[in-house]
User: What shape does this take?
Amino acid sequence: MDHASESLAKGLSLHTSMLCRDALHLARSQGDFERMSRICMPLLEAQRAIRLDALTIGPAKLITTGSDLPERPQPGCYLFAPMLVGADARQFRTAANAAGIPVFVLTREPQMNNGLWPIVGVGERVVRIRIHPPNDQNTIDPQWFTYASEQLGDQAIEDAHNAAEPDDPAAWRVDDLLDRLDACPEHEKFLMALADACRQAMAMPTPTIVRRRALINDPYSF
Assistant: This one.
């Protein structure tokens, strides 16, 4: 986190984010929820910068086949669409980030009979919403892209909340959110919810039983 703070001060948002993500999972492996709560804030700042920079570049690049993938991606927004799926988008973002390229990525699935677009984010758990498409489906403007991302992150928070039982340990609430972090890494309220869950877990005993979550009965999931 010392390195992350230095990177953030230099405006190296992606490097900061990647360091914070590594530190977050390391702290969780040690049950250090207090440190996790503090890591969330620089992570939020780094992801905010990545998101805002991507949105200022212009309309999202539409990716529908493997041949649409640039050999070397440029920073910006990308919307993956059929025949590609959420797992492809996650792999693209991971590869771009590993190459030092910040990208903001969403995925839409085939349009439904009612005209809505399913938007999906893939982490350890899949998050899905259904929203109206943009007026011009060939030009994905930053305003619609922002709206879709916000709705996806809101759903991720709700899904994590609904996964819990009333008597679950507080640490499991943290894990339910971590399961969905890769689905909406740019969502500020999600990272604030994670920080809040970590603070709640600080004062609680570490659970001695393994967290169990039921499989999601969703015919459209991965």
Observations:
- The chain has one domain: 2-202.
